[in-house]
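Tutorial handout. Part one gives the primary structure; part two gives the three-dimensional structure as tokens.
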Amino acid sequence: MAVMSSTRVSAQSNCKNELKKSLKPCFSYLTSSYPSLPDDSDCCPSLLDISKTSVDCFCQYLNSGGSILDINANFIQARRLPEICGVDPYLASVCNEGDGLKNIIVG
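Part two.
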């Protein structure tokens, strides 16, 4: 059981690092008190890339409401960003189902 917990912590740590690096262009939007649409042209492409190449990390971002980034992200803005950026709504809904993520990965 300790190995499983260690593996989970390691995966979350890897996701945190990957997300912080990839979503840095979104930080101003995520932390703004009065946000407009993400103004950096790299924000949405970065989020779309994460949603396609690292589904587990995308779900960790979404389910944490952005808190995994350690940047005091606005929860509502973090949850709306995938919709604003055009991430497949099905993927976002599966992330919210907990075991749904397992179903996507396993088949």
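Part three, for discussion. The CA atoms of residues 42 and 52 lie 16 Å apart. The radius of gyration is 14 Å.
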